[in-house]
Amino acid sequence: MSPAKLKVGCAGLGRMGKRHALHFLERTPRAELVAATSPDEEELRWAKEHLEPFGVKLYKDYDEMLKQEGLQAVVIASATAVHAEQAIKAIEADKHVLCEKPISTNVEISQSVVDAAAKKPHLKVMCGFSRRFDASYRDAFEKMQSGLIGRPSVFRSQTCDKLDPTGFFVAYAEFSGGIFVDCSIHDIDLALWFFGQDAKIKSVSAVGITAVQPDLRKHNDRDNAVGLVEFYDGQIAYFYASRMMAAGQEDSTEIIGTQGKLTVNTQPASNLVNIYEPTGIRREIPQHYYDRFEHAFVTEANEFTTACLDNTPLPLDLNAAVRAVKIGCALQESLISGKKIFFDEAGNRVERATL
Amino acid sequence: MSPAKLKVGCAGLGRMGKRHALHFLERTPRAELVAATSPDEEELRWAKEHLEPFGVKLYKDYDEMLKQEGLQAVVIASATAVHAEQAIKAIEADKHVLCEKPISTNVEISQSVVDAAAKKPHLKVMCGFSRRFDASYRDAFEKMQSGLIGRPSVFRSQTCDKLDPTGFFVAYAEFSGGIFVDCSIHDIDLALWFFGQDAKIKSVSAVGITAVQPDLRKHNDRDNAVGLVEFYDGQIAYFYASRMMAAGQEDSTEIIGTQGKLTVNTQPASNLVNIYEPTGIRREIPQHYYDRFEHAFVTEANEFTTACLDNTPLPLDLNAAVRAVKIGCALQESLISGKKIFFDEAGNRVERATL
Amino acid sequence: MSPAKLKVGCAGLGRMGKRHALHFLERTPRAELVAATSPDEEELRWAKEHLEPFGVKLYKDYDEMLKQEGLQAVVIASATAVHAEQAIKAIEADKHVLCEKPISTNVEISQSVVDAAAKKPHLKVMCGFSRRFDASYRDAFEKMQSGLIGRPSVFRSQTCDKLDPTGFFVAYAEFSGGIFVDCSIHDIDLALWFFGQDAKIKSVSAVGITAVQPDLRKHNDRDNAVGLVEFYDGQIAYFYASRMMAAGQEDSTEIIGTQGKLTVNTQPASNLVNIYEPTGIRREIPQHYYDRFEHAFVTEANEFTTACLDNTPLPLDLNAAVRAVKIGCALQESLISGKKIFFDEAGNRVERATL
Amino acid sequence: MSPAKLKVGCAGLGRMGKRHALHFLERTPRAELVAATSPDEEELRWAKEHLEPFGVKLYKDYDEMLKQEGLQAVVIASATAVHAEQAIKAIEADKHVLCEKPISTNVEISQSVVDAAAKKPHLKVMCGFSRRFDASYRDAFEKMQSGLIGRPSVFRSQTCDKLDPTGFFVAYAEFSGGIFVDCSIHDIDLALWFFGQDAKIKSVSAVGITAVQPDLRKHNDRDNAVGLVEFYDGQIAYFYASRMMAAGQEDSTEIIGTQGKLTVNTQPASNLVNIYEPTGIRREIPQHYYDRFEHAFVTEANEFTTACLDNTPLPLDLNAAVRAVKIGCALQESLISGKKIFFDEAGNRVERATL
Question: SS3 for B67?
Fold first, then answer.
């Protein structure tokens, strides 16, 4: 008899929900997708065709899915607004949880999930920061850990989406929490990974513009923003987020240490092809984050499964996810107010940092 | 009830056999590995631990495996010397066949597999030229097909292995068929793909050296070789194969057309990391062909499965595999004899081509 | 008879002074170096050997050199502290002036040179921002001007020196004006070039650390700093300056427009050589700014000469140099005070920008 | 008084002649251009405007120029057909000679120049293989010399021109000596540099096509050709030459040693700019060889001057130039005849090499 597999349910079947569902269905050998839920008729129709024939039970109601017998884990890929609520319900129903980022666009709500999880230490509750599972980021992290670059001191990272002329980002901005919470959250999480998640914030400041989507201002958002984060202990991170890249998705990172530097994706490329033509030499680049991070999402699904089945530690700590939201929200506030924001070493906001 | 899956048996559990077995076990959603065979005790021990717990039946004898009820397809990853025999037996037992390259180091034996397959047109019989399944090569091929580079005219390709100081390649040379049949066979297959598999050879010539492994001469082999292939119809291909790369596996290709050029992997890289250190900027590269082509092998398994289950055409024609062996053998002969070899338009060897 | 050449004197024969002297002596066909001055004995000894044999008259005293008959132009490459004074004296003596950057580390003193020059409109007075003469920056500028990237909106630029473990930078910091005035001044000048020198600053803020040279704090300086500049009109620039690069000089720039992006030197390289070795593929990069910008300095000398001889416009406006110093000083102040600094549209500092 | 300068005359004022003339006029501090000659009216008109005003005396007749008093050296940039004759006349007139490549398209005529030079050992006579003066090739050579890649064993090099749809190359082929003598001569010279100019040829073979210019066949030429050269002593070189590159000039080289590899220009680029646009990331590349090698030509002029003035050894041996022609002619013959050509260790052609 084959070893038991982790029985997983998927909440939300939008763009990322479909992908998570298929990853657990087809590309996670030790898991099996047994359930999926969405309140949306069209998403359920898709599931009827692509999931149901493989034995996946479908639900319109999330709470019903949680009651399915044998369900062990839930991947939450619904709208951000319900992440926290669904996560807490799953925890209360004694399920392991893999929740899409961010837990919430609000720090307190994010913290409430951590608090719920803390009461059930036997459960694996993880926020899915996909880049933590990317082979290149991991290679860079290991090289840094091995001492190759000395002490990491300056961190530069950007999450830049391809220009979407449909106006999608304007509508999306109403709920996204803003460009720093939606995009830069990844870069912030990476900074906390490379600097250590206990790095204490000293100040944040940010500026931004609406170069192509002035309507973003209705939702207090920008289409290009740069943020600066200063840590106690002599480290700084700076972030760029954009919604107007011409060539495609440009997510790149530099970790600058006292003895060397590591870069990830500073020369983006879709694949190994170069095109020589009368205008020069050209290469194509990923168009969307999933083109870039598909394998990372699959690794995430597999490692989450392993941690649940074997009761081994998760590769990231849920507390870091709350800290990332806290920094993202502060940057977003600074972006809109124009003010620099200071924190004391305990993490409390202060009027003016002592230097 | 879930749709039926293709029941696959794996013959040979050496380095590539293990990988094929695991691909069909874990990474081919529409297939299930149901059997595996090896005459080698140590390989069977590995299978006992890694395959048997998942319901895979193990055999010491290939013929026994073929009798397993319900078995539909066989992947042949045994020693090259038995590829053809096992393939023919599988065909006779009415199994689909995915055979590792080359079918044989001998042209006639290779042809005998084609002949056997021709009698069972309902079977899918494929020689696994992994690069045909690589995303970058496919992208290049599609771009060429779309007319982006005009008529492909010159083809340069190389298969270059990392230096292995253990002497492995010397022992291996006894059975490999020589560097052109073992390594360049991939490049030759690519040339036939990009130029069209009906491209007629006009001449081949080759030279080579033993720069690091003089003992290769015992087996009429070389550690570095360059081959030139001229086709009727105004196309040329040239190949480089080596066993002494310092940095890692360097498999690269250029397709030069009348209006542009496509390159694949002319700037090798393991991943997206760059290391800045006092000696400069460095990137690591794949160490072995599997590091480079892992995803291609997985795609190969999935597409073979699809063709078998849905009775759709295979992505490559078995005849091309024989043609590749023919060219590889001629290059190897020229390498050793020092003579240029000529062919007439019917493919027969002639003393001297008329120009 | 050959056409007349511009008679040039060189003030200062330190590291850059020697280079400027040799450029005008050997690599500026329409100019001839006729005089050179330095208060330093060792520098004069060098000049005795390398300049005097070619007819260059040497002076210990700058004022004496200015009196040399026929002298038409002066290149000022002395200590920054005397740039402005020497420039003003040269202008008063009716000489064209090419002054090394910055004119001064002080805004008012910088302005005094502009004022002096304004009284002699027949003279060519230029501050030598070498990157303006670099072929790659010019190519990027022309491509932007042609509309290739739409409206330039975000500007990222860095000037990063190789780590110098001798402590040179600590001593140098006493007079350099700080890392933003010494290093980032180039990036600021580039921002003013690409955004237009009339772009109005709205705010600046900066943070920095001393990762490798804590003694820099004695001179209110840092070894790594990031600065953010916001312009009225919806444009932002951000700068990184460092004294601790491991691999060499890393000066790179991105100009991000509404329809595309241009990068300069985001993949640094000394030359066209790649080294394949067991640790991977490596390339070397320039070690110092002169390795990177040598040709730009030669172009600068030639174009300055042409403007003087033919009375054609200089390629950069002296006013931009003052604006660059103003921004650099504000960033340096913010770096040390930790405060964000705001300006109104007239360029005056205000307590808090209205947004 | 300034040190004396080398007085140089320039023979031929076509495309390269103009450049050589200007290099010696403006960019060779220790030389002065004093004379120039061309039989062509239009070229002389250009010289009247660009050279005469600077004191350069013009001649319609080469022999007259040689008589100019004080003339010390001649740079020969006339039609290839008169290179040898002009070189011999200059040698006989006791002038140093810098002759454009190739000395002749004929081996014996090339040798006659060597013989003439041998009688005047006080003269500096050099064939201008510009790549020997290129900073990247020199860096690669020094790295190889230092042992970085072990023993150089395989040499790959290509000279590939941008497609010129005007038909220029067809007319040019009448006198060029063919693609191997015109283009690959540079690669052959590089091979002799990196392998040692005494490397003994064992065999050559070549194939080629006319992919875009069928009329080249009238002149026994091809627009794409690949050549293989085998040396006694276990080294091989292979060359590709083309007249149909889409993107621009693509001259690249690989030197593969037993312990590493060096590449030159395998990722061509005009400058340090990258363009990000909706079709991907693009860089431009040099359009012509002068775009790529301008600085090498200037270095060549300066080093030739130094050798003449200081009586120091030239950086390349004239004998190597004859050997390069010999190999180029053999490759061209093999290209047309389709036959492999063999040599014994003494350099004599033999019917069939003994292996």
Answer: coil
pLDDT of D354 strictly over 70: no
The answer to whether the CB of C271 falls within 8 A of the CB of D139 is: yes
Contact A280 D247 (CB under 8 A): yes
CB–CB contact D148 C3 (8 Å) = no
Would you call B288 an interface residue with chain A, using a CB distance cutoff of 8 Å?
A: no
CA of A282, closest CA in chain D: separation in Å? Answer: 4
Q: For each of the domains in chain D, give its residue range(s) and CATH number, in order of start.
A: 6-128 (3.40.50.720), 134-294+323-350 (3.30.360.10)
The dihedral of CA B158, B164, B168, B169: what is its sign? positive
The token pair that represents C266 in the structure block: 């985001």
Q: Give the nearest partner residue to C277 out of B246, B250, B278, using CB atoms.
A: B246
pLDDT recorded at residue C1: 52
The region, left, alpha or beta by phi > 0 then psi within -120 to 50, assigned to residue D202 is: alpha
Shortest Cα–Cα distance, A283 to chain D (Å): 5
CB B86 within 8 Å of CB B20 = no
User: How far A276 CA lies from chain D's nearest CA (Å)?
Assistant: 6
Residue with tokens 């290709």: B253
Which candidate, D4, D326, D29, D31, places its Cα nearest to that of D188? D326
> Beta-carbon neighbour count of residue D192 at 10 Å?
25
> Between vectors from CA D176 to CA D173 and to CA D178, what angle results, nearest 5°?
70
Crossing angle between the packed helical segments A80-92 and A107-118, to the nearest 10 degrees: 20
Compute CA distances C125 → C5, C7, C62, D151, whole Å.
18, 15, 18, 56
Subunits with at least 3 CB pairs below 8 A relative to chain A? Answer: B, C, D
B51-104 pLDDT, tens digit each: 999 999 999 999 999 999 999 999 999 999 999 999 999 999 999 999 999 999
> In one letter, which amino acid is C229?
V
Cβ partners under 8 Å of residue B324, min gap 6: B102, B129, B185, B188, B189, B192
pLDDT band at A355 (very low <50, low <70, confident <90, very high): very low
- A280 close contact with D: CB closer than 8 A: yes
Cα separation, D127 vs D113, in Å, equals 10
**Among A61, A95, A55, A94, which residue's Cα sits nearest to residue A78?**
A61
Model ipTM over 0.90: yes
CA separation for the pair A328, A80 (Å, rounded):
15
DSSP C347: S
**Residue A148, token pair as written in the block:** 């190759």
Contact A172, A276 (CB under 8 A): no
CA C347 – CA A35 distance, rounded (Å): 62
| Contact flag A282-D281 (C-beta cutoff 8 Å) | yes
CB atoms near residue C139 (< 10 Å): 18
Task: Identify the CA nearest to D6 among candidates D81, D74, D76, D80.
Answer: D74
Name the amino acid, one letter, at B66.
L
Per-residue DSSP letter, C34: E
Model-wide pTM > 0.90: yes
> What's the average model confidence in pLDDT over C191-220?
96
What is the enclosing helix (H) or strand (E) of A297? Answer: helix A289-310
* Amino acid (1-letter code) at residue C44: L
Residue B200 parent element (H or E)? none
CA atoms of C30 and C305, how far apart (whole Å):
7
SS3 at position C255 = strand
B-facing residues of A in 140-159 (CB < 8 A) are: 140, 143, 148-149
Contacts 24+ apart (CB under 8 A), B309-314: B309/B4, B309/B6, B309/B30, B311/B122, B314/B124, B314/B125, B314/B126
Cβ-nearest to B148 among A136, A274, A275: A275
Let me know if B258 is exposed, middle or buried by CB neighbors in 10 A (0-12, 13-18, 19+). Answer: middle
The β-bridge relationship of strands A201-209 and A341-343 is antiparallel
What integer best gives the mean pLDDT of chain D?
Answer: 96
